[in-house]
Each structure stands twice: as C-alpha cells, then as structure tokens.
C-alpha cells in the first residue's frame, strides 16, 4: 500500500503539472481517481504495453474526458507507445498526441475515442458483448463519473448490459459529488446502487482512497462472472490540493502555481520540481509490464498452436463480395429497405463478422440476418441483436463492438430517429 500511495501521489503531482503547463484542463478527477487507477493497473489489469493489440488483453475505457491527463500519465509511466515526458508537456496543444480528449489511433493504448459523457460507458458495453461473442477471457473495465451517470445514454446501455448479464463488464464509478456548477446533488439525487441493482447488476460501495477496500472490491468484481459489476467509489476531487480539494474549483481549471506547489509539499514532493517521477515508480510499472508481457507471450503461443493449420483471417475478397450480391429485376420495383435486407443477407453468408440489428425496428427495416440467430444472455453465438428502443446507446455499442475486434457491426433505425445517434456517429 505504501508503494501504491507513492504511485498515486506521483500521478497527482504529474497531472497537476500537465494541466498547469497547458493552462487548460481538469486536474480534479485525475487526482481523485489516482488511488483507484494505480491499484487497478498495477494489481489487476492485464495489458501489455509492448503489444496494445493483444487480443486477450483487458480493455480499459475512461468514459469521462476530464480524466484525460490521467490517461496520458498512465501511458507514460507504463511505457505504452513510447510516450515521452516532453509530450506530456504539450497536452492540449495543436499537433500533440496528448489531445484534449484521448483519441483512438492517435494515442497507443486508447481503446476508444471518448469525450461526450456516457459514450465511453456505452462503448464499454459493446466491447463486453464482443468479448462474449469471441469467447475471450478478458474483462472490460470502465471508469466513469457523475456526469456519465446523468447522461441518458448510461441508462440505455446499462439496462441492456444487465439484460445480457455481461459478467465481463466492471464499471468503476468515481463518485465525488462535484461538477462545474457545484455539487452533483444540486441536480441529481438518484440512488445509483438501487438503480443498477434494478438493471440486474451487482453493486459494491467503497472508499475510493482506502487501498484495502479498493483491493477487496476489485478482487470480488473479478470473481463475479454472471452479471456486470458497478463499484461505487466515493472520492475527494482534487485530493491532495490543500485549499481546492473537494471543491468545484479544481474540476475544470488549473490549480494555479501556488496551489500546485502546496500540493507537492503536502504530498512529500519537492515543490520546485515539475514533471518529476521517482525511479521507484518507473520500476514498479516496468515490473508489472514484464509480468503481463510473459502472460501475453504464453497466450499468443497457445493461440497459434490452436490455429495451426487453420486460417484465422476473416478477410473477404472484393470478388467474393461482388459474386454474392443478388440480382434484381428492374421490371419489378422493390422497396429500398427490402432490397437492402436482401443484400445484407446475401453478404452475411460470405462476410462472417457482419453483426448488428435495429432499434426495435427489424421487421420494418428488414435488417435481420435470417440464418444466424439472436444474441441473448444465454447464447452469444448469434449475429442479430435486440437493441431495444435505444438508438443512442445502440450506435455507441456498435462503436464498442467495432473497436473490440474485427466486427463489421451495424445499428439501424428510421432516418428521422438517427438524430438520436449523432454523438456516437461522430465518435
């Protein structure tokens, strides 16, 4: 625990420096979440910084964009993507890999592009579905906050996650009761525990700064495999900042030079040193990375042995796709949606990773892949989804499925209802 505390306090000081240097960003959430994230990464998360495409890795999603500096601090400390300390100092600057919100394809290790609150949580649900469909043994871990819980998409996605009994989904809710305009309880007094229990989740409540409670909750969450898990972790936003912790003043603005110096002094760091990391912290991340790399090597060898003599590729040639297309008689007009359904069913026979469904409109949209069954909590071998009347979550979960692996996932609705999908379509 002493070692974890050193790591967490290093992250607090580093994130404060990152935001201060940019004169823009959110120091509060990263400082409040540091104990949770340090414990998860160093004791539980199975990722290999040397191979961010390892198929059996755990997926880690930070749903709230206000945790961005924390993502970059972790990326640097873990050695993922060779992110240099100098790059941390370009946070939110034009052309930097350390963009205002982490972006898939720009920053190695970032699974999905997040930003609008709630999107990451819904994409995490899609990733968990993908793991079930691929029969993979990894977990999807999602960090979210009060804003994610307020957005309606969290209700949509979490409801379906409970219905599908996604036991590989572990969500950590950073509950600090602070947002930009003041206290969360000024606008939202939902009982998150009761709400998620009603969805069919297992809910655990902990002090997000007590390492023993954190460790116990993470271990328990990993053992629960029949339903999704929500860990409600009460934290202090901006923890460590002497005068600003626990206030909305540290949520969306730099702490200020004096407060940063006072924070470092309070946490036992030299206030004169910026962007400082003790060697012991680098060493502990390197040791964890080496352990995960050995797991990855063993896993890849086993997978190659299992695939010996078999083709693992799902790629389909252009010629095969064109040959599969149906032919229509121009003298017999067909409704566009009916023609589309005929084409999709023809392509599904040759493109085995085509999966998806309509937001309770399959009968109207004709999107059902007729030979391939429906996904359910008991059976993930199908290729059709009952998304329910959840257009926004559907689009975000399609993003998560697509990001998980090589699915060509689709969601469908009437054109006018697609307005509900726009934030997810943009991402």
Give a brief description.
The protein is an alpha/beta fold and 427 residues long. 44% of the residues lie in helices and 10% in strands. The mean pLDDT is 96.
Please describe what this structure looks like:
The chain is 44% helix and 10% strand. Helix 1 packs across helix 2. The protein has helices at 2-22, 28-43, 68-78, 85-88, 119-134, 146-150, 152-163, 192-199, 211-223, 257-266, 279-306, 318-324, 336-348, 362-365, 391-404, 422-426; strands at 59-62, 140-145, 169-175, 178-179, 182-183, 202-207, 229-234, 354-358, 408-412. It is globular and about 80 Å long. The protein has 427 residues and is an alpha/beta fold. It has 16 helices and 9 strands. Strand 6 (202-207), helix 9 (211-223) and strand 7 (229-234) form a beta-alpha-beta unit.
Compile the SSE list and pairings.
Elements (H helix, E strand, L loop, with lengths): L1 H21 L5 H16 L15 E4 L5 H11 L6 H4 L30 H16 L5 E6 H5 L1 H12 L5 E7 L2 E2 L2 E2 L8 H8 L2 E6 L3 H13 L5 E6 L22 H10 L12 H28 L11 H7 L11 H13 L5 E5 L3 H4 L25 H14 L3 E5 L9 H5 L1
Parallel strand pairs: 1-2, 2-3, 3-7, 6-7, 8-9
Antiparallel strand pairs: 4-5
Helix pairs in contact: 1-2, 1-3, 1-10, 2-9, 5-7, 5-15, 7-15
């Amino acid at each position: 625990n002493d070692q974890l505390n050193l790591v967490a306090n290093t992250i607090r000081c580093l994130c404060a420096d990152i935001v201060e240097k940019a004169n823009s960003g959110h120091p509060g959430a990263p400082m409040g979440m540091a104990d949770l994230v340090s414990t998860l990464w160093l004791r539980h998360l199975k990722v290999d910084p040397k191979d961010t495409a390892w198929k059996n890795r755990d997926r880690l999603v930070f749903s709230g964009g206000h945790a961005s500096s924390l993502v970059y601090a972790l990326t640097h400390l873990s050695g993922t993507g060779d992110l240099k300390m100098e790059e941390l100092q370009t946070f939110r600057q034009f052309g930097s890999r350390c963009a205002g919100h982490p972006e898939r394809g720009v920053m190695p290790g970032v699974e999905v592009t997040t930003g609008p609150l709630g999107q990451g949580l819904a994409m995490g649900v899609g990733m968990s579905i993908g793991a079930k469909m691929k029969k993979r043994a990894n977990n999807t871990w999602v960090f979210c906050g009060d804003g994610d819980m307020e957005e309606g998409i969290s209700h949509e996605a979490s409801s379906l996650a409970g219905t599908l009994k996604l036991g590989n989904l572990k969500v950590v809710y950073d509950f600090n009761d602070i947002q930009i305009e003041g206290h969360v309880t000024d606008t939202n007094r939902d009982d998150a525990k009761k709400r998620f229990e009603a969805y069919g989740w297992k809910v655990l409540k902990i002090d997000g700064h007590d390492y023993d409670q954190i460790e116990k909750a993470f271990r328990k969450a990993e053992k629960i495999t029949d339903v999704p898990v929500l860990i409600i972790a009460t934290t202090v936003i901006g923890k460590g900042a002497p005068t600003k912790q626990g206030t909305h003043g540290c949520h969306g603005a730099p702490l200020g030079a004096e407060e940063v110096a006072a924070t470092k002094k309070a946490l036992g760091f030299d206030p004169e040193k910026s962007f400082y990391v003790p060697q012991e912290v680098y060493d502990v991340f390197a040791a964890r990375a080496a352990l995960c790399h050995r797991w990855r090597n063993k896993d890849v060898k086993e997978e190659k042995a299992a695939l010996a003599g078999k083709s693992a590729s799902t790629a389909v040639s252009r010629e095969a796709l064109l040959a599969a297309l149906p032919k229509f008689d121009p003298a017999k007009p067909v409704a566009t949606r009916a023609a589309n359904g005929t084409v999709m069913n023809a392509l599904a026979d040759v493109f085995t990773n085509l999966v998806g469904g309509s937001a309770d409109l399959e009968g109207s949209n004709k999107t059902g892949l007729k030979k391939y069954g429906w996904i359910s909590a008991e059976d993930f071998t199908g290729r059709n989804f009952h998304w329910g009347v959840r257009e926004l979550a559907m689009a975000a979960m399609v993003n998560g499925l697509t990001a998980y692996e090589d699915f060509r996932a689709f969601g469908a609705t009437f054109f006018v209802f697609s307005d509900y999908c726009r934030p997810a379509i943009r991402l």
